Structures are given as structure tokens and as C-alpha cells.
Automatic annotation (TrEMBL):
Residues 1-66 form the ENTH domain. GO terms for biological process: actin filament organization; clathrin coat assembly; endocytosis. The lineage of its organism: Eukaryota, Metazoa, Spiralia, Gnathifera, Rotifera. InterPro entries: ANTH_dom (IPR011417), ENTH (IPR013809), ENTH_VHS (IPR008942), Sla2_fam (IPR030224). It holds the Pfam family ANTH. This is ENTH domain-containing protein. It comes from Adineta steineri. It comes from the Eukaryota.
Length: 277
């Protein structure tokens, strides 16, 4: 359920995020409900609901971003607010918060696999790993935005004022690198996605020239995975050929049954009239 909502928020109609914001309190209640089940799918659901709440909060504060974490002009996030550093600071913190919840979910997913000794090629293992591809796509964008926003902030603010931000980036960089390394070793993902490779260390924001050496992490989803996700989209929106065929057959069957019932009722009514005569 949480994965489907996540996919809809990310890849669904542009109105989905706006229409789902009202559900933030609902997912918050689900967080509290599942917080009492700190094992197996209970913990997974708890952390996933936390991520959904964080995502919705992010979009409330940053409506410029689409559900897929992209935005229109300007294409470079460093030009989003021009030189208004008072707007970049809260954006940076909100990106950090979003990334934190995503990494927390990923950590719980891998921990649950280790504890249950579940193989990534089993049905149970793949069920738990399903959100990973979406998390890779989201985290690569979040990390890229955080790095670029921090470079932007270092252009106008002192390095000392941003010490905590650099430390937070370093901590998340290490967790993200571990996440990508873990994913790249699993057989299940080898044919589904090309996981980005992060450098050994995060950028040095005190060196302006380091921005020129920075390369954005870009995951590449394989055609097989794309077809699989496309099939899920058709299922969710009810536009696939099979779904249409099933619906058409169901409607036809219901129509035939209704006509048959109407004819029988008419025959009974005519017989009753004859008897009364």
C-alpha cells in the first residue's frame, strides 16, 4: 500500500501530490499505529509512513518541485532563488530531512532482510526490496540538490556558519554510499538498475573549484524494470489492455444478466395477466 502511494506521488498525475496533502494526518496516524509493532512488516510500514509524511511536508513547503522531485525553469537549483540565501537555508534543511527519512526506510529494509535471512531472489525478499529502485531515484536527486545548494550557500555565507550543514551532508553521504554499495551487490537489481557510484569522499565546499569536479549521480533504470513499472502504472490507472478486456467482459456479462432478468420478469407478468383473464 505504502509503495503504491509512493509511486503515485512520484509518477502519477500532476494533481496527485496536491490532492494527497490532506492525507498527511492520516499517514501520521498510521505512523503512530505501527510504531507499536517494532518488527517485520510492522517496522517497515512504520518507517514507510514516516517517509510519506516527510514527502508531503516537503511538497507543502516547496510546491515548485513535482512529485518526481523535478522542477521547471530554472533547471539549475542554484538559480532557483537567485542570491536569496534566506530561502536556500530552509530548503537545504528540508532536503536533509527528506533524505533522512528515505535513508531510515532503506536501513530498515536491509536490516529486515538480514534478520529474516531472506534472499533477494525469493518472492518475500523481492516484496521487501520493491521500494529500493524508487528510493535510489529519489535519493540521487536529493543528494544532488543538497550538494549544489551547499555550494551556493558557501558563496554567500561563512564556512563556520555552515559547519553543521557540512557535517550532516557527510553523515548522509556515508549512509547513501553504503546504501548504493549494498544494492549493487544484490543479484535482484543487477538487471533492473545501474546504481550510481559515489566518490570516496563528499565534495569540499570550502574549495570553490571543487564544484567543477562534482558529477551528479544518475541511476539508469533498465528497459526490463521500466516495462515492469509501466505495467504497474496501467494496473493502477486501469488502462492496460488486459484490464480493459476484463472490465469490458464484466460489463457485458452484467448487461446480459440484466436483460435476462428483465425478460423473465416480463414473461411472468404476462402469464399472471393471462391467468387473471
Amino acid at each position: 500500500f505504502c509503495y503504491v502511494i509512493h509511486r503515485l506521488l512520484k509518477d502519477g498525475h500532476s494533481n496527485v501530490v496536491h490532492d494527497c496533502i490532506i492525507l498527511s494526518s492520516y499517514f501520521d496516524q498510521l505512523c503512530k499505529y505501527w510504531s507499536g509493532v517494532q518488527q517485520s512488516y510492522g517496522l517497515l510500514t512504520h518507517r514507510y509512513c514516516h517517509l510519506l509524511v516527510a514527502k508531503l511536508k516537503f511538497h507543502v513547503k516547496n510546491p515548485t518541485f513535482t512529485g518526481g522531485l523535478t522542477f521547471d525553469e530554472p533547471n539549475d537549483i542554484r538559480r532557483l532563488f537567485k542570491d536569496n540565501y534566506n530561502l536556500y537555508l530552509p530548503l537545504c534543511n528540508e532536503l536533509f530531512d527528506y533524505m533522512e527519512e528515505l535513508l531510515n526506510l532503506v536501513q530498515v529494509i536491509f536490516t529486515s532482510l538480514d534478520q529474516s535471512r531472506t534472499n533477494s531472489m525469493t518472492t518475500t525478499g523481492q516484496c521487501r526490496l520493491n521500494p529500493i529502485i524508487v528510493c535510489i531515484q529519489d535519493s540521487s536527486l536529493l543528494y544532488d540538490y543538497i550538494v549544489k545548494v551547499l555550494f551556493k550557500l558557501h558563496e554567500g555565507l561563512s564556512g563556520d556558519a555552515l559547519q553543521e550543514h557540512r557535517q550532516r551532508l557527510t553523515d548522509q553521504f556515508r549512509r547513501l554510499k553504503r546504501f548504493y554499495n549494498q544494492t549493487s551487490t544484490l543479484q535482484y537489481f543487477k538487471t533492473l538498475i545501474k546504481v550510481p557510484i559515489l566518490p570516496e569522499n563528499p565534495p569540499n565546499f570550502n574549495i570553490k573549484e571543487d564544484m567543477k569536479n562534482y558529477q551528479s549521480p544518475v541511476p539508469v533504470v533498465s528497459a526490463t524494470s521500466t516495462e515492469s513499472l509501466s505495467g504497474m502504472d496501467d494496473l493502477l490507472t486501469g488502462t492496460s489492455t488486459d484490464t480493459k478486456s476484463i472490465l469490458k467482459t464484466t460489463v457485458s456479462d452484467d448487461s446480459a444478466a440484466s436483460n435476462m432478468m428483465y425478460n423473465r420478469t416480463k414473461e411472468i407478468s404476462e402469464l399472471e395477466q393471462r391467468v387473471m383473464q
